[in-house]
Write a structure and sequence with these properties.
The complex is a heterodimer. Chain A is mostly helical. Chain A has twelve helices and no strands. Chain B is built from five helices and five strands. Classes of the chains: A mainly alpha, B alpha/beta. At the A-B interface, helix 3 of A face helix 1 of B.
């Protein structure tokens, strides 16, 4: 029975099925907010699910120049990495599947892994657009990874721990004192998460007006569906991580609090997406090193001063 | 039951790729106008995709010129099955004012199979949306019928 319970955790809750469906729900929230900001009605709530089902029933094409093994294997691994990251997040009153001191680093590692897998996905697809997109993805990785980690470490400094559940408890107890201090880090982490998820204005790696679709150019059918699901799962992990560290509403409201804080994070990301145009790749790097990193360092300094 | 869900998903999530097969750009401007927030085609699930690999519907504008013929064929073969083609504008239908020119094929259907023709020079965005909506019904019917588009799976490219 133990084995079955573990399998249930991995595949249904809080594993694969929950992450994927919650990710598709957040995609709808994102698209709906984006549409409302453009004064549109936007897609119906079931749109992301139908998109996914359609992709799973389309023809599978492996291009001649692609590496067939990597072409099939990498999208699945990408989804697996993103879903595994979520297993280490406590949410809505549930503790994570395997809590241990230092799980913050593991979650960040899995998020990094899926970016590197995206690089490989483009590299092995045998398309020049895929390769250019891959190289841009790696260049952008140099831009946002440092500010993202620095800003995620600010609550960890305040709590004096690397364990997400401990940080969450400390932040929830001192929310009124700590939230103003972490606001700077919260802003930086939202911007860098936007870069991590390759969304406007940091979508140079997938710029469809320049390089078709970047790393995803050659992907069709269910492989594309896997990559898209992995992106949604990354969105869930990113939003869940920020909501755990900065906005631990679920200590008060339970599961609803987790949903609310994730939707708040996604709202911030959608506002960014709706209000800016795409940056060139060198501007992304420049903005990151000129502004994001100094501000995240400032956030850390503030945290150290407040903690005393 | 499963077939119905698949048919519905085909109908509700058409991703379009836009290809100018030698037109004068008027139809392209109208196609671009179609996907602006004013018409909100995302209500129908329509999204413009850069890569033909991701697309379900190919929107072609222009009489096919001799030079673009090979490219059009290649783009068409790169799309995964089931795939549909909408010809937009008089030129794409019959060659329009270029009909009979030495370098013009005279319509998209001379090169690849076309499902819906949208006449006009250029057609209004409403007409283009109506044309795509006609393809959507066809997509659903094909997904439900036994000898739909699935049979003509072409390998290559």
């Amino acid at each position: 029975m133990d084995f079955l319970a573990d399998l249930f955790k991995l595949l249904v809750f809080p594993g694969f099925l929950f992450v994927v469906n919650f990710g598709l729900f957040l995609e709808w929230v994102d698209r709906k907010i984006y549409a409302r900001m453009q004064h549109r009605v936007g897609p119906p709530w079931y749109q992301p699910w139908l998109d996914t089902i359609k992709l799973f029933t389309k023809e599978d094409v492996i291009p001649e120049k692609a590496n067939p093994f990597m072409f099939t294997f990498l999208p699945v691994l990408d989804l697996a990495a993103a879903v595994t990251a979520f297993l280490y997040l406590p949410f809505g009153g549930f503790s994570s599947v395997n809590p241990f001191p230092g799980d913050l680093v593991v979650v960040v590692f899995f998020l990094t892994l899926s970016t590197l897998l995206l690089f490989l996905i483009g590299w092995y697809s045998g398309s020049p657009f895929g390769r250019v997109g891959s190289l841009r993805a790696v260049t952008q990785f140099l831009a946002y990874e440092v500010p993202l980690v620095l800003s995620l470490l600010t609550p960890a400094l305040l709590a004096g721990s690397w364990s997400i559940s401990t940080i969450k408890i400390v932040m929830a107890q001192n929310l009124s004192r700590f939230l103003p201090v972490t606001l700077l880090a919260l802003a930086v982490s939202l911007l860098s998460l936007q870069g991590k998820l390759l969304r406007v204005p940091f979508d140079a790696p997938e710029a469809e007006t320049e390089i078709v679709a970047g790393p995803l150019t050659e992907y069709t059918g269910r492989r594309l569906a896997f990559i898209r699901l992995a992106e949604r799962a990354e969105l869930v992990v990113g939003a869940g991580l920020i909501s755990n560290l900065f906005l631990p509403f679920d200590k008060v409201l339970g599961m609803l609090g987790f949903f609310v804080s994730c939707v708040v994070v996604v709202f911030g990301l959608s506002v960014l997406r709706a209000s800016f145009a795409r940056l060139r790749i060198e501007d992304t790097t420049l903005i990151s090193w000129k502004y994001l990193i100094p501000f995240s360092a400032l956030g850390m300094a503030l945290a150290i001063m407040v903690r005393g | 039951m499963l077939e119905k869900i698949v048919a519905l998903s085909r109908k509700a999530s058409p991703w379009v790729a836009h290809f100018n097969s030698g037109g004068c750009n008027a139809c392209d401007i109208e196609v671009m106008a179609t996907i602006t927030p004013r018409f909100d085609v995302e209500r129908l699930g329509i999204q413009l995709k850069g890569s033909p690999r991701h697309a379900d519907i190919l929107i072609c504008t222009g009489p096919v010129t001799g030079q673009i013929r090979e490219r059009l064929l290649r783009i068409y073969h790169q799309m995964p099955q089931p795939k549909y083609v909408v010809a937009v504008g008089s030129c794409a239908l019959s060659g329009g004012v270029f009909h009979g020119c030495y370098n013009v094929m005279g319509g998209v259907d001379q090169v690849i199979p076309v499902d819906v023709y949208v006449p006009g020079c250029p057609p209004r965005p409403d007409a283009i949306i109506a044309g795509i909506a006609k393809v959507l019904d066809k997509m659903q019917e094909d997904a439900l019928s036994k000898d739909g588009r699935e049979r003509e799976v072409d390998h290559g490219c």
